[in-house]
Amino acid sequence: MTNAQPILVGGVWESSGDDLVARAAGTGDVLGRTFLATAEQLDRATAAAVVAFDVTKRMPSFERAAILQRIAGGILARKDEIARSMAQEIGKPLGDSLVETERTAFLFHYAAGEAERMGGELLPLDLVASSAGKWAITRRIPIGPVAGISPFNVPLSLSAHKLAPAIAAGNPIVLKPDSRVALTLLKLAEVMVDAGVPEGALSMLPMAIDVADAMVTDDRFKLLSFTGSARVGWDMKARAGRKQVVLELGGNAAAIVAEDADLDVVMKRLVQGAFKYAGQICISTQRILVHSSLADELRMRMVAGAEALLVGDALNLGVDLGPMISEQAAEKTKTLVDEAISMGGTLLAGGSRNGAYMRPTLLEGVPAEARLMREEAFAPVATFDVFDNLTEAIARVNDSDFGLQAGVFTRDLRTIWAAFEGLDVGAVIINDVPGYRIDHMPYGGVKDSGLGREGVKYAIEHMTELRTLVISPES
Hints:
It is a single chain. This protein has 475 residues and is α/β, with parallel strands linked by helices. It has two domains: 7-249 and 450-468, Aldehyde Dehydrogenase, Chain A, domain 1 (3-Layer(aba) Sandwich), CATH 3.40.605; 254-438, 3-Layer(aba) Sandwich (Aldehyde Dehydrogenase, Chain A, domain 2), CATH 3.40.309. The chain is 40% helix and 21% strand. It has helices at 39-56, 61-77, 79-90, 94-117, 155-169, 182-194, 209-212, 214-217, 230-239, 263-275, 295-308, 327-342, 371-374, 390-398, 413-422, 456-462, and strands at residues 7-9, 12-14, 19-23, 30-35, 122-124, 135-142, 146-149, 173-176, 202-204, 223-227, 244-248, 254-257, 287-291, 346-349, 353-354, 357-358, 361-364, 381-387, 402-403, 405-409, 427-430, 446-447, 450-451, 464-471. The strands form seven sheets. The protein has a seven-stranded mixed β-sheet, with helices on both faces. It has a six-stranded mixed β-sheet with strand order 9-8-7-10-11-23, sandwiched between helices. A three-stranded antiparallel β-sheet has the order 5-6-24.
């Protein structure tokens, strides 16, 4: 195959001896070809980032902001091309892919503002007599080269949550995108290079896992930002040495529907929250807990909503669910569903698969010990359960190794406060699903769901060190 897409190594477009064939999700059709980076290329990219840090750490705010704004404009100029590439590579419906592309442009635009707002504090120190006349000034200093590892499922946005804060803070970054979406991320790299990211400050390297492992242990990187599975993330942290680590990991997010909830609002959001993009989102609504007074009505509506969703070719506008990332992923999902039914769960909707396509699936009465309740399904599957009081519902949500986000549908301030105080998660979303996220809010979880926070401002805090200057009078 000719016209292979080169990879970006320390600002230079290169090939390697290890071809990577890009295939369409669902069909396996060949889309194009690029390359997997070698260990030697990763080493050169890392060395280039170290050299580039001498430039980026001195770059004034207005230059960093201008680069980020040009990236945002470049993404919008190529949004149709980028979105189509995403839809083909990972089976994300084209409409959703367009939304993600536009959202990524917003993220870089917002990061430009954060680059201009990256300041500090002026602190009086004369709280005791011996410090009379002394003042302190704080300033955020870029931390150094960043290693980023991003997943396939929200490829542009989750990669941008590493790339944009790094540039805003003045740090070079080496990013390993998931190989299944390499062509799409290399298009983003082209936009970033054209926007004027300093040479060596950006590398975009699809890599085999054994090659990329050096990013975890290499002390030239000062921060590792990883989005992926809990098992892999915590293992990385254990081996990362002295570098800072930010982990955005998995979940089995729950939504509580309280007795005063507006079912029209609930329905619009829950069907999307549970099944959008075939459930392949770490904050997909996997567990639905409904007050007994609303259970019959909501059950009926949820079944109808799930059965009405259109499953098909991701390139067709109007399709609600495309294929899962692979036939193996769909097969694993079917196994989890069948296992839950064998343990006493009742199938309400869906439950079938055709190759990589999985019908939106809703089950009720799945026992707490079933894997579908304990693990991250990462699939268009949700469980439906009934509760009688809020304390019980909160306890059941917290009965999980994960704690990313939770949704609560209510109009009662007492319920809102009880949920905010009682739910052991990174964020409580009121009158929306746990999958709600906008890119400038703090995002991250507790327990096995991760460590640290993303959201541009909060990622910049991880990517910088606070330095203090103390000023004393002459006498």
